[in-house]
Automatic annotation (TrEMBL):
It holds the Pfam family DEAD. Binds 2 zinc ions per subunit. Its cofactor is Zn(2+). It comes from the Bacteria. The lineage of its organism: Bacteria, Bacillati, Bacillota, Bacilli, Bacillales. This is Replication restart protein PriA.
Length: 802
């Protein structure tokens, strides 16, 4: 077949299709689906993905493929299919979806070089090309007459590898090894022949007589106290031999992980694991929801399920939220599966990410533990996919393609006929509702493995503090507990919720918060107009001077930063040592780990931070958790705010008393009677679920309906409103009568980078044509989007309604 179907890298709606290109003779045998190529496109040369091959094209005068970027395809057949589905499901371009599946390094064109990995004879054309060198520029190959098939075969045999040169920084590391070039008895002879004055050379040889193994050159220097000149002399004499070997940069030193063995399971763990193992054995897909309180041993269940998968010669993907990719979590997987584990998260450099990806691509690992995008790991024989903390919104990509890793996981699970396991102490309402209906299989673990009770939660009513004259952000109870904790030499975690982009208005006397009468979300204060606005439906009213509930004048907007809290804390308790962890103090690479390490080493009494400290941390000495402002998340303009508050309070409470010492939690609140604060303090997920479901039903929110969000932005205010309004009208005409189209309303971030942002929200139950309708509507604006400064984005599963 001499024609390739190519998805080209042009970010435009009109180009979202395959183009036919002729495959030149030299590529014909090696070109296959999933490879990246360079093709002519108009006057330009661009990259593209080969997605198919065929004999004939309806077009005449096809242009030829200029170059092949990969000798081994970077996308498997499954991933090509999956990318297509992702693009269609999220209304994005195919090219965008494919690029999202690959590490950054492979999204661009980089200079390449070929590295020789072996001393064994290569095909003679290749020997000729390398001409005694270990590394050559890729262009030398391109300009030579060596057939592509010859190179491909050498690459597949592992004799040669391709290295992408990422900006002057080499992505692969090449290390020189030294080994004996003679058999043991000949080596001894050589040793005898050496002049007795060549002390250093004799010393090196005696080393190899004792350990006749390859050694890294650098290590050899250290071990034998020699230098390059000595080694070179021995190499030149043909006694030793040197060769270069490509090694992966290893962000985690595998040797430092202590090996762990499977633990005998508790009854509850056993019951949760058993049905999962059964699916693994029967090669059947199913989705499991493991609902287990913090410390109930969910991770051990994952580990033992993966072990079973590896036993079958299959592979596993484990997704964890970026935030919990702490050394603690990585240690648990590396400790059990050692170098079979690749780790992928955003703190790795591009080169490191590429290395981890290549280990997966080359089938050198069995398990990947990673953040969201690890769901696209190019495994071909998946046996299980695990999503820990399944309720985390970081599993939804907020940029194109706006996919949810859970959906992709289930799609891959179906393809590979393997189980997908979702785990959480506080599942999403969506997942829990599905589990209750029997769509997912539910396993419940309500006991901690150490049988410790969950820490007691005390809710402090901050309105009373104010009435009693305490204007500080620390209640009397919290201060007392912190002091006695520090006295006992124990540690404290203090959580300050991130404040939303916008501020809400609350009465400090009675805790009253103004909410939209139609949408039940907190109204947002707009300083310029002194108005309160609803960001879902556009309802607005004037900012009141007096609290409508209690007539107090203490009604105002709300929000504090961690830095201010730290200052106040230093004033209140000058002797306490505080570590502050927020976006500012963790910006530098490795800062996150360093701060946690210092806290673990007891270099501080208090760890003060935002959400990022709520999850996954496991410090034996933490006995007190304080939540300073439990309200600030409760009143985000988001219908999920109660759910998020419940989740956060449960998570952070789980940080206390995880080991021998028992723990305590103090939650400060201006709305202590709110059901999500009350029920979180009782750890009553079931009751919370039932209550919250009623509200979702009443105001028509997921999981009762699906949402879609269209956001329009333009520099011209009027234009932004007009287009949004037109889109809403067009949609209203075609949707069913049960479907609600809201808008145009200003986005919660109404103006960003001098662009006005308006949105239209669709609430629907059954609209099989919705995607194609939205696509058609967007196509109407395709011209304007290209020529003018108009942007329209669609999110078919919005989480951040901002
Ligand atoms: P979760 O992920 O549900 O919060 P973890 O997996 O972190 O819980 O388990 C909590 C603690 O219990 C860990 O220290 C873990 O090593 C320990 N653990 C897990 N399973 C068992 C078991 N079967 N027996 C004893 N200890 C266990
Ligand atoms: Zn009031
Ligand atoms: Zn509203």
């Amino acid at each position: 077949m001499n024609i390739a179907k190519v998805i080209v890298d042009v970010q435009a709606k009109a180009i979202n299709q395959t183009f036919d290109y002729l495959i030149p003779e030299k590529f014909r045998d090696i070109l296959s689906e999933g490879m990246r190529v360079i093709v002519p496109f108009g006057p330009r040369k661009i990259t593209g993905f080969v997605v198919g091959k065929k004999e004939e094209s309806e077009f005449e005068q096809l242009k030829e493929i200029i170059d092949v970027l990969d000798i081994n395809p970077v996308l498997t057949e499954e991933l090509l299919e999956l990318g297509k589905w992702v693009a269609e499901d999220t209304l994005t371009l195919y090219i965008t979806a494919y690029q999202a599946m690959l590490p950054q390094v492979l999204k661009a064109q980089y200079k390449k070089e070929l590295i020789r990995n072996t001393d064994e004879e290569l095909a003679h054309e290749l020997e000729f090309l390398f001409a005694g060198r270990d590394v050559i520029r890729y262009e030398e190959f391109v300009q030579s007459t060596v057939p592509y098939t010859t190179l491909r075969n050498a690459i597949q045999d592992g004799a040669i590898s391709i290295n992408y040169l990422v900006k002057s920084k080499v992505t692969k590391k090449v290390i020189t090894f030294i080994e004996p070039n003679k058999e043991a008895h000949l080596l001894e002879e050589a040793f005898m022949d050496l002049s007795p004055s060549a002390k250093k050379q004799r010393h090196v040889l005696s080393f190899f007589l004792e350990f006749p193994e390859p050694v890294e050159q650098q290590k050899l220097y250290n071990l034998t106290n020699t230098n390059r000149a000595v080694i070179k002399a021995l190499v030149d004499k043909g006694i030793l031999r040197e060769y270069k070997k490509e090694v992966y940069r290893n962000p985690y030193d595998d040797t430092s992980f202590e090996k762990t063995l499977p633990l005998p399971l508790t009854k509850q763990q056993e019951m949760a694991l058993h049905p999962i193992i059964e699916k693994i054995h029967n090669h059947k897909h199913d989705v499991f929801l493991v609902h287990g309180v913090t410390g109930s041993g969910k991770t051990e269940i994952y580990l033992q399920a993966i072990q079973e998968v590896i036993k079958q010669g299959k592979e596993a993907i484990v997704l964890v939220p970026e935030i919990s990719l702490t050394p603690q979590m990585v240690k648990r997987f590396k400790g059990r599966f050692g170098s079979d584990v690749a780790v992928m998260h955003s703190a790795l450099s591009n080169g490191e990410k590429y290395d981890e990806w290549r280990k997966i691509h080359a089938k050198e690992v069995k398990v990947v533990v990673g953040a969201r995008s690890a769901i696209f790991a190019p495994f071909e024989n998946l046996g299980i996919i695990i999503i820990d903390e399944e309720h985390e919104t970081t599993y939804k990509q907020e940029d194109q393609p706006r996919y949810h890793a859970r959906d992709v996981a289930i799609k891959r699970g179906q393809y590979h006929e393997c189980p997908v396991v979702l785990g959480s102490a506080t599942p999403t309402l969506e997942s829990y509702a599905r589990a209750k209906k029997g769509v997912y299989q539910l396993a419940t673990l309500d006991k901690r493995t150490n049988n410790q009770a969950l820490p007691k939660v005390e809710i402090v009513d901050m309105r009373n503090e104010l009435h009693e004259g305490n204007r500080s952000m620390f209640s009397i109870a919290l201060k007392r507990e912190m002091e006695s904790g520090i006295e006992r030499g124990e540690q404290i975690v203090l959580l300050l919720n991130r404040r939303g982009y916008s501020t809400f208005v609350m009465c400090r006397d009675c805790g009253h918060v103004k909410r939209c009468p139609h949408c039940d979300i907190a109204l947002t204060y707009h300083k310029n107009s002194n108005q309160l606005k609803c960001h879902y439906c556009g309802y607005e009213e004037r900012m009141p001077h007096l609290c409508p509930e209690c007539n107090s004048e203490s009604i105002r907007y709300f929000g504090t930063g961690t830095q201010r809290v730290e200052e106040a804390l230093n004033q209140l308790m000058p002797h306490a040592r505080v570590i502050r962890m927020d976006v500012d103090t963790t910006r530098k690479k490795g800062a996150h780990e360093k701060l946690l390490k210092r806290f673990a080493n007891k270099e501080a009494d208090i760890l003060l931070g935002t959400q990022m400290i709520a999850k996954g941390l496991d410090f034996a000495n933490v006995t007190l958790v304080g939540v300073l402002t439990s309200d600030s998340m409760l009143h985000l303009p988001d219908f999920r705010s109660s759910e998020k508050t419940f989740q956060l309070l449960t998570q952070v409470s789980g940080r206390a008393g995880r080991h021998e010492l028992s723990g305590k939690v103090i939650v400060q609140s201006y709305t202590p009677d709110h059901y999500s604060i009350q029920l979180a303090s009782e750890y009553d997920f079931e009751k919370f679920f039932l209550y919250e479901m009623q509200i979702r039903k009443k105001f028509r929110y997921p999981p009762y309906v699906y949402l879609a969000l269209i956001t329009v932005s333009h520099q011209n205010h009027v234009k932004a409103v007009q287009i949004t309004s037109r889109i809403a009208q067009l949609l209203l005409k075609v949707v069913g009568k049960d479907t609600i189209v809201l808008g145009p309303t200003p986005s919660p971030i109404a103006r960003m980078k001098d662009r006005y942002r308006y949105q239209c929200m669709i609430k629907y139950k059954n609209e099989p044509e919705l995607r194609s309708t939205i696509k058609k509507v967007m196509d109407l604006y395709a011209d304007e989007m290209r020529k003018e400064d108009l942007s329209i984005t669609v999110d078919m599963q919005p989480y951040h309604l901002m």
